[in-house]
Amino acid sequence: MALISRSPRRARAIASALGSLGCPGFAQLSLDFDDEPPPVQDAAVVLSAALACDDLPRSIVRALPWVVLEYAHLDWDFVLQEARRRGTQNRLGFVVTLAEQLGAQSYGNEEKLTRLAEVEERLFDIRLDREDTLCQDSLPDSERTWLRANRPKEAAIWHLLTDLDLRGME
């Protein structure tokens, strides 16, 4: 599995890319450039790069379902190929599940939800039968033990150690 090692620089780059995509809470980061605005990033690349990181700040991880919902018609073939190549399909599946839940909370997302349900189904077919974290590989053993017993059911389905759910994205 080719995950990207811990890097504050990588996290800053992903946060800035989220800002260029218009992600709430990150838009101010796109203003950190001199006179020219940063180029808008490809949501598929940003999502794939973020999911491949072994450790990211929770604020970035919490933003990923927004990216999936907002850009539901991104290049899923590329994203799925990258997820398989890097062994991050469970992370992606969980994020897609949360995006669907987020989208179901408001009217007008039916087309996006249909697309995400199709992607989720494809991901479930290639789900890995191994435990992982949601870009939090440095979790101590005590927290991993706690998460195994207290994670949301969706996280358990995707074999992830995380406590992220819709409440964590408010």
Instruction: Tell me the total number of β-strands.
Output: 2
**Outline, from the CA principal axes?**
globular
Class by SSE composition: mainly alpha
Order of helix and strand elements from N to C terminus: HHHHHHEHHE
Spatial order of the strands forming the largest sheet:
1-2
**Helical stretch tally:** 8
Report on the structure:
The protein has helices spanning 8-20, 43-51, 58-70, 76-86, 89-104, 110-125, 141-150, 153-157; strands spanning 132-133, 160-161. The protein has one domain. The longest helix has 16 residues, at 89-104. The termini are far apart. With 170 residues, the protein is mostly helical. It is built from eight helices and two strands. Strands 1-2 form a two-stranded parallel ribbon.
Blueprint of the fold:
Layout: H1 8-20, H2 43-51, H3 58-70, H4 76-86, H5 89-104, H6 110-125, E1 132-133, H7 141-150, H8 153-157, E2 160-161
Parallel strand pairs: 1-2
Helix pairs in contact: 1-2, 2-3, 2-4, 3-5, 5-6
Quick structural overview:
The chain is mainly alpha-helical. 55% of the residues lie in helices and 2% in strands.
Keywords:
8 helices, two-stranded parallel sheet, disordered N terminus, 55% helix, mainly alpha, 170 residues, 2 strands
